[in-house]
């Protein structure tokens, strides 16, 4: 017995014919996009619903991505991504069963577009190939409606056809190319950064043809965070391949320098030498440990938007040096941007703000008006809703939002620096910023900085020979007690000269407790100081 026979028992003949239309052999001759379009139209008519949508699993298998729809075109144009296990579609994929919602509200639907469109009731089923979930097919009604078991069976029949056709039509070469391209466009997963929230969107423009826009976020060896947004001029496979090469080059040069301007200068030299037909705009930002400030350098890229609590959002005044690949080698500039608690920094590509026939300033004004301090995902969704909405973008759009947490205690700080004298300045600055966030008084700040500075200087002077090594400093609050750990992995040399070797005595005078541990892996100095006048 065929699925249509099982569903059709007891149904009127005209509805049976419409059900059998879902298994029409003529559909097999259609390409995937045409098949989805035709099936969605038939499902919408058959079930007498207002909306129908297909969401497919992305390469990371962590999100559902809006792929085809009737009545919810904004989902595709805004690049809607639903986490598996969350919201209506995410729940269907996680539970691998049909789900019905009689009355849509904030508690059962994650995607705000469904509520904005006035969808009242929903029915959804998983797209399955064997035991594997490929995505979700769901329908919606603008009027309250109780979907029946027969409705669910019919929708599952359509979902099975969508899943089989999609899998059959995607050749291995196409899947490999799509996966590789997606991985080059986006990080597999945004890193988890204590004290900082991250959110991102990427939407291809020009009818779905990918281009050269990208974003990237990664940790640096020192504990800093590097954030990059770029746009290669051009469209299609060639621009995407060039984008992938530039993205990888940025990561490689970030291991050589953590100065954004210097990094872009090296990237420009590579393009000038090896990639004569490439031009790109790039914005590179490096966040200091603790994220109290961000150093930004721009190679012809649109300026980021900074949103501070209680203040109107505004564009950051960043000098726009020439794009990558445009001119010969030249000095590039850095701009230090404060990022206080509760602030947002929004980076993007020009497809978000440029519109044919209107000044760029109009798009930038819409963007600044859309950015209000808040959680990264909320800000990202608001930006896409305000600037993209239901209008397809002619160009690719990449958006990356950084949201620094409001003050709720101080996250631990770890610094890893070369054990050379010039590194001590950066250590002192990071320790000073950390102590300020922890609420240390001026006297406490001076005592701890001097003690940590002495322990760090001892590592630079005594722990390593000519070959050098690493200095590690870790700060962490336990209630109101600060624990500072200074560590090396070398073998200490004896102090040289007169009046030397008194650093430990001085540290005991500056903090509440000092512990020095030596083992086969190096030396660790642990300093405890209770802030707020309690303790020593």
Task: Outline the fold blueprint.
Blueprint: H1 3-8, H2 13-20, H3 32-47, E1 51-57, E2 63-70, H4 73-77, E3 81-83, H5 87-95, E4 99-101, H6 112-116, E5 121-129, E6 132-141, H7 149-169, H8 172-185, E7 196-203, E8 211-219, E9 225-235, H9 236-254, H10 260-274, E10 280-287, E11 293-299, E12 305-307, E13 314-315, E14 320-321, E15 335-338, E16 344-348, H11 360-370, H12 376-387, E17 397-404, E18 413-418, H13 423-437, H14 442-463, E19 470-478, E20 481-487, H15 503-510, E21 513-519, E22 522-530
Parallel strand pairs: 11-14
Antiparallel strand pairs: 1-2, 1-6, 2-3, 4-5, 5-6, 7-17, 8-9, 9-10, 10-11, 11-15, 12-13, 12-16, 16-17, 18-19, 19-20, 20-22, 21-22
Helix pairs in contact: 3-7, 9-10, 11-12, 13-14, 14-15
What labels describe this entry?
six-stranded antiparallel beta sheet, 35% helix, 536 residues, six-stranded mixed beta sheet, 15 helices, 27% strand, elongated, disordered N terminus, alpha+beta
Question: Briefly, what is this?
Answer:
This protein is 35% helix and 27% strand. It is α+β, with helices and mostly antiparallel strands.
| Number of DSSP helical runs | 15
Give the number of DSSP strands.
Answer: 22
Uncertain parts: 1-10, 171-175
Arrangement of strands in the largest sheet: 3-2-1-6-5-4
Helix content estimate: 25-40%
- What sort of overall outline do the alpha carbons produce when their principal axes are compared? elongated
Q: Main sheet?
A: 6 strands, antiparallel
Structural class: alpha+beta
Distance between the termini: 84 Å
Strand content: 25-35%
Q: From the alpha carbons, calculate the radius of gyration and give it in angstroms.
A: 28 Å
Mean pLDDT: 84
